Amino acid sequence: MKAAEDARAARGEGPRRLGLCVLCGLPAAGKSTLARALSHQLRRERRWAVGVVAYDDVMPDAFLEAGPQGHWSPPRWKALRRELLTCLEGFLRALLLRGPLSAPPGATEALWEAFTACLRAQGLLRPAPAAEGPARHLPTPPAAGPLLLVLDDNFYYRSMRHEVYQLARRYSLGFCQLFLDCPLETCLQRNGRRPGALPAETIRLMRRKMEEPNPQKNAWEHNSLTVRSSACSAEASPELTGLLLAALENPVTCVEDNAEQKEADRAVCSSSALHQADQALRRIVSQTMKEAKDARLRPPDLKLLAEALNQLRAELLRDLRLGGQAPLCSQALGVPDVVALFHEEKDSLVHKYLSEQH
């Protein structure tokens, strides 16, 4: 596994400790305010290197391809999130190997420029010598202490956060989750005061879909902390600092495929997972089409919706078959994640056709 080889090659040569912190919660819950305060405090008091990657800044809506009715494409949004994680993985690999950083193949230019600008502004990137090639950068390793990367986004589906966990596992990094629990009405009020406020219904829908960290059910979420909105302040609590220290001092174990039997087991599990996922997605498509008919969607739009849903189903099953970076038999990855992604994008498709009709 290439990631495991990179992690082994860099052991003892990169930063002493390196961790990823997922900061999740509703829009206007106070995530960005807390991230900035946390970065300032950890830099000042503990001399840590801290990088905050705010998805709203690095991946703004302007990068998305809007359709003729002004609706952005859920598959495009999903692709950009994955692309951002690819950029982040490239930075981590370059940092561990102390090599140059360049844009991934096929990277969206605007996203790549925003990502590198974000890291440069925080002192984590510097221009590479001309000999390294055009448009390249060099990571700036911490002088002594650890490096903490804080990913600031809504991350309302568990599958979104699990992708970050997988990245931490591939490179044996620390990993933790910080969930900001803010009342819906408070978020709506704060959002209403923002320029370019989100539609209130978008935030309400996100609250209904929010999958809070559940350490009791999911072992990979054990290093999680919920912070009530009223308890948020400009200073990190001892409990929060303890969460970050625990993540840095106990990196996720890198899992490697090391036997033919494991590959055979994976194939069996993949076949079972594909069957389960296909049956589950077909039931969702059937129920969605029934609800669309009850909502009196026009027959031509019903046909288009059915085609879009089945195309989405085929794409997700293909992704599941390819297997990604982790075994499909993994306790934390499988049919529930695929179903959650389908629900996420299905709701947007239905909303698109219903809003166009009205």
Describe the model:
The protein is of the alpha/beta class. It has 2 domains: 2-249, Rossmann fold (3-Layer(aba) Sandwich), CATH 3.40.50; 260-357. The chain contains 12 helices and 7 strands. Helix 10 (260-294) runs antiparallel to helix 11 and helix 10 (260-294) packs parallel to helix 12. The longest helix is centred in the last third of the chain and has 35 residues, at 260-294. It is globular and about 65 Å long. Residues 8-15, 64-72, 256-261 and 324-333 have low confidence and may be disordered.
What is the fold's blueprint, element by element?
Blueprint: H1 2-10, E1 18-25, H2 31-46, E2 49-54, H3 55-58, H4 74-97, H5 109-121, E3 125-127, E4 137-139, E5 147-152, H6 158-170, E6 174-181, H7 184-192, H8 200-209, E7 224-228, H9 238-249, H10 260-294, H11 299-322, H12 335-357
Parallel strand pairs: 1-5, 1-6, 2-5, 6-7
Antiparallel strand pairs: 3-4
Helix pairs in contact: 7-8, 10-11, 10-12, 11-12
**What percent of the residues sit in helical stretches (DSSP H or I)?**
40-55%
**Overall structural domain count:** 2
Low-confidence stretches: 8-15, 64-72, 256-261, 324-333
Per CATH, the class of the largest domain reads: Alpha Beta
Distance from N terminus to C terminus (CA atoms, Å) equals 51 Å
List descriptors.
single chain; 358 residues; Rossmann fold; two-stranded antiparallel ribbon; 12 helices; 7 strands; 54% helix; P-loop_NTPase; ATP binding; KTI12/PSTK; nucleotide-binding
